[in-house]
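Q: Structure for this?
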Amino acid sequence: MNDNPILVIGARGKTGRRVAERLTAAGRPFRAASRTTGFDLTDPATWDAALDGVRDVYLVPFSEYTDAATLRDFAATAVSAGARRIVLLSARGHDGVHPLQEAGETAVRESGAAYTILRPAWFHQNFSEDYLLPSVLDGRIALPAGTGREAFVDADDIAAMAVAALTEDGHEGAAYELTGPEALGFADVAATLAKATGRDIRYDAITPDDYVAALVAEDVPEHVAVMLTDLFQEIADGKGDRVDDAIPRVLGRPARSFAAYAEEAAGTGVWT
Ligand SMILES: NC(=O)c1ccc[n+]([C@@H]2O[C@H](COP(=O)([O-])OP(=O)(O)OC[C@H]3O[C@@H](n4cnc5c(N)ncnc54)[C@H](OP(=O)(O)O)[C@@H]3O)[C@@H](O)[C@H]2O)c1
């Protein structure tokens, strides 16, 4: 164990916030980094201050569009500054890494740091802390996911895996696929949310074209709308219907279910 601060990028985001909470509880020093703390992953002028004295880095790229060259340059700068370990938040694809994240993974693998790759499924918290929250509040989740299933995973389990990889030996070189304990269709998700909230919430399977049009009407840039639609199409095609045991294997306990997440989130009042 070292006393150098662990750099937590995206420490206000869905996983970074939970990584920061877990490090605080464990009494491990860390440095929170996001634009509100003066760190911008896309601005190299902000990197040195964030990396000062750091040995371990939790690297959240923020977006499927983060340039792999940015990740490569950041990882190289981190290693030059003394970082030895990088834990990268990537995403799972149908067969290993998701194609949108492949170049970012390669950048980190080639950085010279010891690395661990986390490849999560879709997060539970998209329904309470991100872009699906308004749909839940409307009582209508309209997506082009058909009857496909996804093995949604909890952001707190991702954070627990990140902290394990950041603070324990034995995870170097691993690429962990992170899923919940079961794959669910969006109709199951809507029913579970309805039960937890006591409200009417339904799922409507809509066409890809209708979804793109709806997002564009909400001022989402068209390329982002198309990318999101393609991701839901992957679920419709059955590519998310796969459960992995990395979380129970590493953490020694089951992954959190969507129902447990929904009950707890409902208790916070986020859907009232
Ligand atoms: N959501 C999912 O279901 C899912 C599934 C699989 C993989 N992923 C991957 O997870 C990663 C994180 O996505 P997320 O949606 O969960 O985001 P997030 O971690 O919730 O990140 C949002 C945070 O990022 C910070 N941020 C944004 N741009 C920044 C920049 N240029 N420099 C520094 N900080 C910045 C913001 O804080 P400030 O405003 O303070 O900057 C914000 O709090 C993505 O790469 C995505 O591909 C997501």
